Amino acid sequence: MISNQEIVEDLAAHFGENVLEFEEPNGLLTFTTYPSALIDVMTYLRDNDRLRFKFLTDVTAVHYPDSEGKEFCSVYHMHSFENGIRLRIKVFVSKEKPEVPTATGIFAAANWMEREAYDFYGVIYTGHPNLKRILNMEDMDYHPLRKEYPLEDATREDKIDALFGR
Amino acid sequence: MSEKVQNIKTTVDALALNKPIQEENELTTLNLGPTHPATHGIFQNVLQMDGDKIVSGEQTVGYIHRAFEKIAERRPFYQITTLTDRMNYCSSPINNFGWHMTVEKLLNIEVPKRAQYIRVIMMELARISDHLVCNSILAVDSGAYSGFLYVFQEREKIYEIYEEVCGARLTTNMGRVGGMERDLSPTALAKIKDLIYNTLPKVLAEFERLMNRNRIFIDRTVNVGSITPERAMEYGFTGPNLRAAGVDYDVRVMEPYSSYQDFEFDIPVGHNGDTYDRYMVRSAEMWESIKIIRQAFENLPEGPYYANEEHYYLPPKQEVYRSMEALIYHFKIIMGEIEAPIGEVYHAVEGGNGELGFYLISDGGRTPYRLHFRRPSFIYYQAYPEMCKGLTISDAVMIMSSLNVIAGELDA
After folding, report:
1. Which chain B residue has the Cα nearest residue A75?
2. What is the pTM of this model?
3. Residue A56 phi, psi (nearest 5)
4. What interhelical angle do B393-403 and B113-141 show, nearest 10?
5. Cα–Cα 20 to 30 A to B137, which of A101, B83, B318, B326?
6. What is the ipTM of this complex?
7. A56 vs B: CB within 8 A
């Protein structure tokens, strides 16, 4: 078994300033890295004999429109079955250049999950073998889960958000 | 003239002139679905065929897209249960409790033991119901319609239990943040007892006698759609499909939730990762689920079935009629006036199909800032073309069936 603290020390020793903002929301180790270092970090986590994060559980994206230069976040959940531990990696990119390298080269599981994140948020996974929409029409010219697209008609005045728990 | 028409014309000319047709290795594009009965849901397979052999394939999954993740950003936590229950509609209690456990983790709420045990009983019934559907439909796809009819009676009984517990049969909103919506009634307990001690074991044994050594079934499933444990891991397989490949990963054991650590049960694993192993693992898991339900049923703790968390737990209806506080909190929760703390949670449960994950980001508002569902069915179908390669259409149908298509989970 391995603790969060040991993983943090190991990563910090190997990647120095390329891994940052370590925290533990609800006990799950979370840290941030840069797009340039992402694949190296994931490969290290997968191949290191002690860490053995051989399972990519989930890939998704989040939109923070007010966070200048870091509007999009690509989130990865990895799992080490042998150590019974999970971790979360975050990569922030700007809306001008929402590009993150694809993880399909190291995990086949990333294929559809990255396509879904691209479809919903427009995060471009560079090097992806088939980066096209997966749940929506291919000719859609926007990414619907971005915060600028409200669910309802924003011009309506007869519905007060506060009365509907929003 | 298009290339296709030109080819047809050449063939017709050759036939008319009695000339030998030039043999070409031309691939045929075949659309299997999206509304073909064998696709089990709104799901399209575009297959490239060389004769009757599948060379490659591509899937289109977005035919049922309901934008649950987007809708969830505008709903209070209480109202999101109506979305989660509709993802895997064959085992909706697992989705339901999985979501409630995620919110409880965020709010740091301890659920009483009795509620945890009731949840375990309901989740295991849901797993049995899910596996019954999957295995019996697999039987239908191999031509054994009678197997399907045998086990559907039992699924019906499970639905009657749901109905007794919460009033609904399919989209069973029986959980609440902090516990259960109501306690198990004596009728519900009697129905559960009858099911797990009398009828279900008999029917499962009968179904296994019909299928397990059936020559046609074995011919159609053994070494069909095999996947190695390494490849299954790379593709993100979880649940019965990963266990069929030989990896004994089960969220209930690795990260026990809702008191699963109190129960003794085994994790069935396969050897070949083929269609037959996926069938056998599901079959064995139903027996393990019966084992768990019996333990929970026999040791059902006394005590409250909900946590004393008036800010978050919807008060029982009778109290709303009598107490002013209950009325106020009922109103505040229903209108979504209660804010959640800032936080980030990933919670996973062992769904009928595998690891069902809920990734929730709360910015301290009344609705989630972001909610993402890790749907196991969505992840399996990346591997589907690879599993079908070199096989025939009838094999492709069996593989799809054994992976368990739940269209609501493919495309949340």
Report:
1. B359
2. 0.92
3. -95, 105
4. 170
5. B83
6. 0.94
7. yes
